[in-house]
Write a structure and sequence with these properties.
Layout lengths: L27 E5 L2 E6 L2 E7 L5 E2 L1 H4 L2 H18 L3 E10 L2 E6 L6 H7 L5 E3 L2 E7 L2 E4 L8 E9 L4 E4 L2 H8 L3 E2 L2 H5 L2 H13 L2 E6 L5 H8 L2
Parallel strand pairs: 6-10, 10-13
Antiparallel strand pairs: 1-2, 2-3, 3-4, 5-6, 5-7, 5-8, 5-12, 8-9, 11-13
Helix pairs in contact: 4-6
């Protein structure tokens, strides 16, 4: 079974040394001021300290799937520890800015992503955002332009950008946060992340048909 960044827990090899595929729900986590230790079914899985790579148990290290899963989970958790987070979203480049398209499955995120030219596509389905110096940037793509706005796609017969009040944006985007271990341990940290993001960038409803001209519309709006 191939590991998938979109759903790492469900993608672990069936012959993992652990009896069940790991997930954040099955991991028993003990927290420290700067990291955590994790067990599953009483078997040590890994330990982690902020700013350091995770240390896997011999059982976990024997599985490539576990190594991939743990590295990505710790990347996500490290982001959360430092005020960032991961959104169910896609992103594209518009001139010197980036736009994030956030929404539930079927909202049109990947369609919008596909309308961008290959050199202007940044991420599809998962966006790891780091917040610093009043800017939102892509954690895995620091050279990409800072985020100018979050757009919530709405199927329509015309192009229009409608500002979304922060409270409504927070409620809409809350289900689209992919939690790592820290957000799972401290759910209020999810709200803190989104609140900080909404203080950093505006949110719009993007009314659009399935038309590649939407990219030109966005470029003109942010020109």
């Amino acid at each position: 079974m191939t590991w998938s960044a979109a759903n790492p827990a469900a993608s672990l090899a069936a012959d993992s040394p652990f009896e069940v595929a790991p997930s954040t729900a099955r991991l028993q986590v003990r927290w420290h001021d700067d990291g955590c230790e994790a067990h599953t079914q009483g078997v040590p899985a890994f330990s982690w300290r902020l700013g350091q790579p995770p240390e896997l148990s011999p059982e976990a290290y024997a599985s490539q799937a576990w190594r991939d899963y743990t590295r990505y989970l710790m990347h996500r958790t490290s982001l959360e520890f430092t005020g960032g987070g991961t959104l169910h979203a896609s992103a594209g480049r518009v001139g010197s800015r980036s736009l994030v398209f956030c929404g539930a499955s079927g909202a049109g995120k990947s369609t919008l992503y596909g309308h961008f030219s290959p050199e202007d596509r940044i991420l599809d389905e998962i966006c790891d955002l780091r917040l610093s110096e009043s800017r939102a940037r892509f954690a895995l793509y620091p050279d990409a332009p800072p985020v100018a706005a979050v757009c919530l796609p709405v199927h329509s017969d015309h192009f229009e950008l409608v500002p979304v009040p922060p409270v409504r944006a927070l409620h809409t985007m809350l289900p689209e946060v992919y939690p790592g271990l820290w957000f799972g341990h401290r759910p209020e940290a999810v709200v803190d992340f989104l609140s900080s993001l909404l203080e950093t960038v505006p949110v719009f409803e993007l009314h659009t048909p399935k038309d590649p001209h939407v990219v030109q519309f966005l470029r003109e709006f942010w020109s």
